[in-house]
Amino acid sequence: MALTNIGRRQLVVALGGAVGWALTARAQQSGRMRRVGVLMNRAAENAEGQARLAAFQQGLQQLGWIDGRNVQIDVRWGEDDAGRERKYAAELVALAPDVIFVAGTLGVAALQNFSRTLPIVFASVTDPVGAGFVDSLAQPGGNATGFMIYEYSLGSKWLQLLKEIAPGVTRVGIVRNAANPAGVAVFSALQNAAQSFGIDARPINTRDPAEIERSVQVFAGPNSGLIVTPSTSLHRDLIIAAAARYKLPAVYGNRYDVTAGGLISYANDIVDQFREAATYVDRVLKGEKPADLPVQAPTKYALVINLKTAKALGLAVPQTLIAQADEVIE
Question: Exposure pattern of 4-30 as b/e (b: 16+ CB <10 Å)?
């Protein structure tokens, strides 16, 4: 039966309405507000922590996730303190987010104590397998995956750099956070590596400012140096000041330590890692499981040297080392 002009118009309107309803329904379903918890291992006023959080949020925005529009981001600041990390982990889990992004080993440990099913994406974790967060790097197998801050083999590079910039060093203090599992494990790795360099390695703990000052003062002496691990970043200024006061050459595992006055660092770009972590959060929000997303290890490290600090320590930095540097601060 032929359609009249009126009939055709009615059919077009009806079909258009059906298509429009379907598109609207789909948009409403895909456009529901998602929730992302964030547990940072810095203080809220810490500039480094703010830069990392901003990079993560920018990464999400580039992937179409806008805070307040299609995603709600709840941020807590654990300050790399075990008690605070546990407190805020409990708060975030109680909010029942779709996924939690967490920085640091203490934060992941705290979250997994409360939930082994809530999806977790991490950054700045040293040994996720050893800590029991994942079954393996290639196949995490549980509710967590993410990005490693470095591998333990990097300890040999730190020791090598210390010997290059201060050849007379025979004793090294490993500055670590003994309350952090990563701080304990990295000391063991560095202690083993130090033997091949003929160096005696000793731990320097950072439970509180008084302990740092006392431990560095007691350790300081002829032919001594420091390896400052990333687990101690909260006490950065105090450690840098102590190294300068007692004339100790120090290698740091964080670029920010050198821009703040430290001697030399060899580290990956952690801010960029936080931006990359947004891609994993995006994939989880779109339905993928942490168990199926391999843990990513850094592929690029940067060497940064502070010549002003070297001069204050009376060190002549070899030109060969300066030539290798990605950044030289004068």
Answer: eeeeeeeeeeeeeeeeeeeeeeeeeee
The domain 33-149+269-292 is placed in CATH, from the list 3.30.160.340, 3.40.50.2300, 3.40.50.970, 3.40.50.150, at 3.40.50.2300
User: pLDDT tens, 114-160?
Assistant: 999 999 999 999 889 988 999 999 999 999 999 999 888 888 999 99
pTM of the model: 0.83
Taking domain 154-267+302-329, whether its CATH number is 3.40.50.2300 is answered by yes
Query: In what helix (H) or strand (E) does residue 16 lie, and over which residues does it extend?
Result: helix 5-30
Round to whole Å and give the CA distance between 183 and 181: 5
Residue 8 to residue 126: CA distance in whole angstroms: 67
- pLDDT above 50: residue 16: no
**233 alpha carbon, distance to own chain's centre:** 11
Tell me how far apart the alpha carbons of residues 37 and 72 are, in angstroms, rounded to a whole number: 8
Q: Identify whether the C-beta of residue 219 lies closer than 8 Å to the C-beta of residue 239.
A: no
**Which tops the pLDDT comparison, 209 or 24?**
209
CATH 3.40.50.2300 placement within the chain: 33-149+269-292, 154-267+302-329
Q: Give the angle subtended at the CA of 33 by the CAs of 32 and 39, to the nearest 5°.
A: 145
Question: Residue 235: enclosing H or E segment and its boundaries?
Answer: none
